[in-house]
Fold this sequence. Notes:
Chain A has one helix at residues 2-39. Chain A is mainly alpha-helical and 48 residues long.
Amino acid sequence: xxxxxxxxxxxxxxxxxxxxxxxxxxxxxxxxxxxxxxxxxxxxxxxx
Amino acid sequence: xxxxxxxxxxxxxxxxxxxxxxxxxxxxxxxxxxxxxxxxxxxxxxxxxxxxxxxxxxxxxxxxxxxxxxxxxxxxxxxxxxxxxxxxxxxxxxxxxxxxxxxxxxxxxxxxxxxxxxxxxxxxxxxxxxxxxxxxxxxxxxxxxxxxxxxxxxxxxxxxxxxxxxxxxxxxxxxxxxxxxxxxxxxxxxxxxxxxxxxxxxxxxxxxxxxxxxxxxxxxxxxxxxxxxxxxxxxxxxxx
Lengths: 48, 240
């Protein structure tokens, strides 16, 4: 029973670390993009 | 006015990735049964395998963009190579962490100097070195050229990592899906794994599009600053 609880800690840890790392990176990239986009004229943002 | 790195394409991809992530969690914890051999730890495989697959794709793309840069000296290729390396390192780092947690359950240890683990760690360090090289070089042309050479050279380790379980005695389990005629998992486990790989693929593309645009904007800002500095120098010269 204790071993199973331990296993769930590792399993949820793996999922949690993955979610936090990818989510955190995505937020950082989106914020950096917003900050830089204000400094660049619209014609230099070809995806608009 | 759109003042972000978003576009219709990234919004659609982002929505698909978000819905896909919810579906993967439902399948991984609600539908997939525990494995006969791996037990509950198979649920770690639903993030471990997709992160390494995404990392391989991104790092192979890095080598292709690097080659294209050396051929055409294109800023597009340089920014794209930087983008794929950065997200590839993120995915490979997650592969090592999730694999380590899986190893603690299955082998009783977080780390073994096993062929697969060691070559994967080496691959990770090579691309961390790639990012460090980019950060340490100021001249844009020299930075892009050196990074492209390192990116192409580092990619030769990818097939070695992939084949390491066949070439050397390894604690790591053998290939489960790719390169095997008969996949060793099936049913809802296989479906969950394939779904997760597809969702991580979409997520990697979505992240890459935003990161590429950040890199492109950064390039434009640097150029604008250089042009402004040259303009100021010129006006100082005229005034003198």
